[in-house]
Design a protein that fits this description.
About 40% of the residues lie in helices and about 15% in strands. By secondary structure, it is an alpha/beta fold. The protein is globular. Residues about 1-10, about 45-50, about 265-275 and about 275-285 have low confidence and may be disordered.
Length: about 290
């Protein structure tokens, strides 16, 4: 499909790569172009029902906020008194009863790291980084979706690679100035809906080298396409993704938003689908 001449040709000169932007490029290069290079806001909703979608996003953001405040020293009893939603209350008490024990670790919540990636920078904001100096570095990511994300999807999502890779690249100042070795890194996805079933991913030097090659290659591809006057950022071939993309009508891929329940059914039935709404963004807010 040719690009519309009605779309602004402005391309961002302040582009930084993140796990979300790189995942968008892998999932649909066209989505990446519209969202990050042309910074095009499009008046469409991501999923139906709208109120349910917004409520889930708000609850996720509030949960991240509560955990951040707790890890920053605010007593749990005081925070509990501020909760007035039953789902959030359940998540919160699951966190208090079952979250990873970080006693004795140097813990940082809502912390950002960055490092060069080609001609740009790679950035990430972590829900929790916990360092046991000279021994282990633990990444914790709170996943507040209604159902547990399958391990296969998490393993294939760029978030798992980017967060571990970047901690090795840029985390030495959190470890007393000593480089963090890949074998010291572990990433845990923790689900407040199913607190006893976290997913853990160990890291190693082989994976680190593979991630470096892949992430560098993605950055080079993006820069090369961005520098071409008629850079072809192709549309995804998997039109199931388009049902949950705000640009679907712009790309002539439908007008009606997908249903959250339909999305979960697709995930349950189709093993090759690796897609989520932007739930990973809900914790990336200032408190």
């Amino acid at each position: 499909m040719s690009q519309s001449t009605n779309i602004p040709i402005y391309q961002s000169t302040n582009l930084q790569f993140s796990q979300s932007s790189l995942q968008d490029f892998v999932d649909c290069p066209r989505r990446f172009q519209l969202k990050y290079l042309r910074e095009l806001a499009w008046p469409a909703i991501e999923a139906e029902p709208v109120l349910e979608h917004e409520n889930l996003m708000q609850l996720g953001s509030r949960f991240h906020q509560l955990v951040h405040q707790h890890l920053s020293g605010v007593p749990a009893e005081r925070l509990t008194q501020t909760i007035d939603h039953p789902d959030l209350s359940r998540w919160w008490h699951n966190y208090l009863d079952h979250a990873p024990d970080l006693e004795g670790w140097q813990t940082r919540s809502e912390i950002a790291l960055s490092a060069p990636l080609g001609k740009r920078r790679l950035v990430a904001k972590y829900d929790v980084l916990a360092i046991e100096s000279g021994k282990q570095a633990l990444i914790i990511d709170w996943k507040t979706s209604r159902k547990k994300t399958p391990r296969k999807w998490l393993q294939e999502r760029l978030q798992t690679s980017v967060y571990s890779y970047l901690l090795v690249q840029a985390g030495s100042h959190l470890n007393g100035g000593k480089a963090i070795q890949p074998e010291q890194v572990e990433m845990t996805y923790w689900f407040p809906e199913v607190p006893s079933q976290p997913e853990r991913f160990s890291y190693n030097t082989k994976q680190y080298s593979s991630d470096h090659e892949r992430l560098s290659s993605l950055a080079e591809q993006i820069i090369a396409l961005s520098n071409e006057e008629q850079g072809q950022f192709r549309l995804t071939s998997d039109e199931r993704r388009c049902r949950f993309c705000v640009y679907r009508s712009l790309c002539a891929r439908g007008e009606k938003a997908g249903d959250l329940n339909d999305m979960e059914d697709i995930f349950a039935q189709e093993e090759d689908v690796v897609f989520e709404l932007d739930f990973e963004q809900i914790g990336e807010v200032e408190y």
